[in-house]
Protein: RNA-binding protein
Organism: Nanobsidianus stetteri
Amino acid sequence: MRNLIVSDTVVKFTCPNCGQGIIIRSNKEKKWGLEWKCPVCGYTGP
């Protein structure tokens, strides 16, 4: 689990592969192009 800074804007969406996993990304993670991984199916995205 990672810590989010209070001032970060976050986006929460379902996995585009399985539609079941919940992905939460901060604006900084998106800007830096950090990968995320679905906790259900293991799909990764930019």
Q: What stands out?
A: The chain is about 15% helix and 30% strand. The two ends are 18 Å apart (CA to CA). The longest strand covers residues 10-14.
